[in-house]
Design goal:
Distance between the termini: 50 Å
Number of helices: 10
Strand content: 15-25%
Radius of gyration: 20 Å
Oligomer: single chain
CATH class of the largest domain: Alpha Beta
CATH topology of the largest domain: Rossmann fold
Number of domains: 2
Order of helices and strands: EHEHEHEHHHEHEHHHEEE
Shape: globular
Structural class: alpha/beta
Largest sheet: 6 strands, parallel
CATH superfamily of the largest domain: HUPs
Length: about 290
């Protein structure tokens, strides 16, 4: 594994790979790697013989009151895990390399970014879109691998790729969970052992809603209410949202129809830690397509 720190060197390596007729699978991360990330590294090998990962805590996706400075970091462990999972090139730029003095460009998406995470973190997806676009231009991948845990983010990136004509296939890999159902996340390191146990309520809430859908519930507000009711059983939970939406565009119809794929989206505070999660469920029934 080679560790690359500059845009110039990373771009030259990518161009040489392209000249040899090989493809690149790319996994962008903010570091503090865990099994969720390494699963993406392993999946990248299914799509290309050359794999690139990045480690970059992106300041533009954090609001001033968020945890950019405190975001967990452990480069030594990250390097070891990336090498163990046979990443070929690890791109590790610093903030000035990505955003040099005088940088003045932004990217903004509408619609898909205006609800859920976009409502509670208004500048977040602009920062995500900007850094991902830059990384795509630097690394020049054929495939980019993302985790489903950040479901809305995957929709934002797919929209950006479509709108800006990036010739990149976006691959979304299922969420990796602990035994109690808690989605693996770098921010889990903020949780106490008790809070990690309590955080299993997110998965339980989604499973209760999925069961209701599979048993015939179609009313969006009733599905939401099921998740709210389960989440309220943990006194330390503070809710941003727990909502059912159409998986394609995050719209929120009053009723879901057969063949709809619903995404159940959660964002809560447990103590001082903000956790997000999601789960997909298909509405079964007579063959019917939403018009």
């Amino acid at each position: 594994m080679e560790i690359i720190n500059t845009i110039k060197e990373m771009t030259e390596i990518s161009k040489e790979i392209m000249r040899k007729g090989k493809e690149i699978a790319f996994v962008p991360t903010m570091g503090f790697l865990h099994e969720g990330h390494t699963t993406l590294f392993d999946k990248a090998k299914d799509f290309s013989e050359i794999t690139v990962a990045s480690l970059f805590v992106n300041p533009t996706q954090f609001a001033p009151n968020e945890d950019y400075a405190q975001y967990p970091r452990n480069l030594e462990k990250d390097f070891s895990l990336a090498e163990k999972h046979k990443i070929d090139y690890l791109f590790v730029p610093d903030a000035l390399e990505i955003y040099p003095i005088g940088f003045s460009t932004s990217i903004s998406l509408r619609n898909i970014t205006e609800r859920f995470e976009g409502k509670f973190r208004p500048s977040h997806f602009d920062g995500v879109a900007l850094v991902v676009a830059k990384l795509f231009n630097i690394v020049k991948p054929d495939f980019a691998i993302f985790g489903q845990k950040d479901y809305q983010q995957t929709l934002v990136i797919k929209q950006m790729v479509k709108d800006l004509n990036f010739d990149i296939k976006i691959i979304v890999s299922p969420t990796v969970r602990l035994e109690n159902g808690l989605a693996m996340s770098s921010r889990n390191s903020y949780l106490s052992e008790k809070e990690k146990e309590e955080a299993a309520i997110l998965y339980k809430a989604m499973e209760a809603a999925k069961t209701a859908v599979l048993n015939g519930e179609r009313n969006r507000k009733k599905i939401n209410a099921i998740m709210h009711q389960v989440l309220r059983t943990v006194s330390g939970i503070r809710l941003d949202y727990a909502s059912a939406a159409l998986s394609t565009d995050l719209s929120e119809p009053d009723l879901f129809f057969p063949n709809d794929i619903i995404v159940l989206l959660l964002a809560v505070y447990l103590g001082k830690t903000r956790l997000i999660d999601n789960s997909l469920v298909t509405v079964f029934g007579n063959n019917f397509e939403r018009k």
